[in-house]
Amino acid sequence: MVDLHSHIIYNVDDGPSSIEESLKMINEAGKAGIRRIIATPHFHEKVFEAERAFERFDELKWRAYGLGVVLYMGNEIFSSPHVIDLIKSGRCLTLNNSKYVLLEFPFDAVPSYIFEVLNKFHSDGFIPIIAHPERNKFFLSEHEVLKEFVEAGCLIQVDAGSITGVYGQHVKYLCRRLIKEHAVSFVASNAHFAEDYSDRYRKAYQTVKKWAGEEYTEKLFSDNAQKIIDEESLNKIKKEMANL
């Protein structure tokens, strides 16, 4: 399985505070069947910055060698009117240097400027992935609006914890509905602690398989996220070939 949303890098955001905790998370992820993780520390101009993340990611990747899990880098980017400029300037990252951007909304609203931003994403060739919209209070009461975002080219990522009921039955119900409608593209851990893998991830996998069958479950937990990793690998090969 492939996890495209995880806060495994220590002491950069609200995830683990030590490298030992990060390694414990990776170990539990491996036990849950995950073989690839995209580390996505929060990026928020006024709260979380990215400077320390690169150095600690490199150290963590080295220390995790032999655990059977390959690490990649990205950000969970808090939405802003100039998010495209932040990406182009290198202040925050797409997922594994691909065209896919993990975008976080406020938990109680949808920004008024967001469709203008989405148009910029489209014109610049980026594909936004909305992180855990099932936990957003606006979408919980107006879930039909999510279809407008899908129609605008957004992909949807829901949290494993939402599927298992950690955030309440209303959130779980919305997940079930979205998954049954095949409106979701990814299920991710959004892990901040080792327990997010050991207590939630496999349980979420089995729950989704009951809801939607094995084929679609594999797409949500593995195949679709693998395409993001493969895209950058293909881009690297193309660049190398062009330089021959």
Descriptive account of the structure:
44% of the residues are buried. By secondary structure, the protein is an alpha/beta fold. It has helices spanning 19-31, 51-63, 83-88, 114-123, 137-141, 146-151, 160-164, 169-180, 195-212, 214-242, and strands spanning 2-6, 36-39, 42-43, 70-73, 76-78, 100-104, 127-131, 155-159, 186-188. The chain is globular, with a radius of gyration of 17 Å. The protein is built from ten helices and nine strands. Helix 1 (19-31) links the parallel strand 1 (2-6) and strand 2. The strands form two sheets. A six-stranded parallel sheet has the order 3-5-6-7-8-9. The protein has a three-stranded parallel sheet with strand order 1-2-4. The mean pLDDT is 90. The chain has a single domain (2-242), classed as Alpha-Beta Barrel (TIM Barrel).
Record the SSE blueprint.
Layout lengths: L1 E5 L12 H13 L4 E4 L2 E2 L7 H13 L6 E4 L2 E3 L4 H6 L11 E5 L9 H10 L3 E5 L5 H5 L4 H6 L3 E5 H5 L4 H12 L5 E3 L6 H18 L1 H29 L2
Parallel strand pairs: 1-2, 2-4, 3-5, 5-6, 6-7, 7-8, 8-9
Core attributes:
single chain, 244 residues, alpha/beta, TIM Barrel, six-stranded parallel beta sheet, three-stranded parallel beta sheet, 10 helices
